[in-house]
Amino acid sequence: SPLDDDLDQKYISRVAAMARAMVRGVFVIALVQGAAAGVLLAIVGMPYVAFWSLLCIFLALLPMGVNVIMIPMGIVMLAMGNLWQGLLVMVGSVLLVSNIDQVLRPFLVPKEAHLNPVLVLIGALGGLHLFGFLGVVYGPVVMIFLVTTIEIYFDHYRSEATLEQ
């Protein structure tokens, strides 16, 4: 890199911290979403809650994964005449379980990344749109790279340009 070693180290440390946090965050969020789905299923009296919760944890690693199980399960409950149970499963899945990702992801960013939680959320949503499932990790990493580049420019190169004038 043509940059000084301390600037290279700043890039490397921030990008590595963000990548570790986003990869770890995918698994933490999947665990929390699966547990929340399990609580919903336990409330409505679904048999084999542990099995369904475990299945939801694994499916939560995919986009819309928990809803792949919960929405059809709610529809079946409605068709069987369990109205409040089916509605609770569907509404709870869409409003509660699906939004856990947007609530938790900004809080999983380490302090050494120096990135605002709003920028993390924008990076994750933009990355998801551009890169698909892996964009949840790629988006915040690209965002930290952009923010670090702007910060280095303002701290080092802009101040050098004003000193030369």
Calculate Rg over CA atoms.
Answer: 21 Å
Total of helices: 7
* Strand runs, count: 0
Helicity range: over 70%
Strand count, sense and barrel status of the largest sheet are: none
Shape: elongated
Structural class: mainly alpha
Measured between the Cα atoms of the first and last residue, the distance is 27 Å
What share of residues are in beta strands? under 5%
Q: Mean pLDDT, rounded to whole units?
A: 85
What's the order of the H and E elements? HHHHHHH
Q: Which blocks of ≥5 consecutive residues have pLDDT under 50?
A: none
Name some characteristics of this structure.
mainly alpha, single chain, 165 residues
Explain this structure.
The structure is a single chain. By secondary structure, the protein is mostly helical. It contains seven helices and no strands.
Q: What does this entry show, briefly?
A:
This protein is 79% helix and 0% strand.
Topology:
Layout: H1 5-43, H2 49-59, H3 65-79, H4 83-97, H5 100-104, H6 117-131, H7 135-164
